[in-house]
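ok so for the tutorial part 2 we go from a plain amino acid sequence to predicted structure tokens. step 1 is just haveing the sequence, like this:
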Amino acid sequence: MRTLVLILTAVLAGFKVNAAEVNVYAAASLTGVMKEIASAYEKESGDKILFNFGASSLLARQIIEQTPADMFLSADEAKMDEIAASRRDSNRNTR
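step 2 — the prediction. this is what the tokens look like for a chain of 95 residues:
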């Protein structure tokens, strides 16, 4: 568990966002570990992590409907693929 916290902290630290707030959508099962990671990241960066925890299907639907999310963490690969496909489709339509 500690290794997971360190790895995700490193990922967040390398994740550059233009704003001082990072919107993280994460599966409810990750609540405890994500709050621990956020605490370490916020101390290091000065940025603020804003969480939206819930069912992966609900979070994916919100993201697809253009709710601002900087990061989506889920064990449901199909939902992540669905979001990626919607982003590709959206990018094609704006060209």
